[in-house]
Design goal:
The chain is mainly alpha-helical and about 280 residues long. The chain has one domain (about 5-260). It has helices spanning about 10-25, 30-60, 65-80, 85-95, 110-115, 140-165, 170-190, 215, 220-225, 245-255; strands spanning about 5-10, 65, 120-125, 195-200, 205, 260, 275, 280. The strands form four sheets. The chain has a two-stranded antiparallel sheet with strand order 1-3. A two-stranded antiparallel ribbon has the order 2-6. Strands 4-5 form a two-stranded antiparallel sheet. The protein is globular, with a radius of gyration of 18 Å.
Length: about 280
Amino acid sequence: MKIKGEYYSWSMIFSHAVMYVIAIYALMFFSWENVLALIVSHIIVTGFGIVIGYHRMLSHSQIIAPAWLRNILSLLGAMAFQGGPLTWVDHHRAHHAYENNYGDPHSASRGLFWSYYGWHLVKNPNGYEKKYNNVPDLKRIRFLVFLEKYHIVINIGLILFLGLLLGMDTALWATVVRAVFCWHTVAFIMTSITHLNKNKTGDYSARNIPWLGLITFGESLHENHHANPMSANFSTKITEFDPGYWGIKVLELCGWITLKERRKKNLGRGLYKIGPYNFQ
């Protein structure tokens, strides 16, 4: 299915190809030290940067953080090779507003390949246009605008810095290999497989994949999240693991954040009431 105004993004296709070539090259330098670097960076950048920072703090305002911590978590998110905070959050809010329908950039109704990977490779995916209309609150924060503009430069600088500090092979494992690993676990599975669940009416809906919880920091508890997107805790059973929430509780115990626990279910597909840290 082709949507009007949807066309290939050759810059995105090229950047993905470069990332895969570098990642495959880096895999030739396997060592347990490099694996450890990948794991540690995955916890720091993906767990705290994407899961807590981009997703639960910026997208849904599940936590309220002081400016210094908000900036640190957002900077970590910008190091994940998933775009700047404005783009990431704008996509994600559109996804929740139009879940699996026109306007949802990675709608599962267009199939596995589209929702898993294809939507990354085109401009205006599934009728979504990146105009930052969903992030008026974030556009007012200058540091987030800075990250949006310079996240590529930041990532290149990170690779070079870690290369000088740890050696280039370890640096590539901690950045590019980690990023590709994150794409295919925390990111792409969340946009596709966790939504390829048809309900009785034939519509696609979110589902949980509990066994992936530890790797994805709880993001695979996707049915729980969509049922209650204002809750920072994606786990509803003792058998469901949400390390992202564990990290949030650690930050709360340190006195650095305020947990905004709001139990609102069945929000439907209407757009959030968007205001500064107030998404209903």
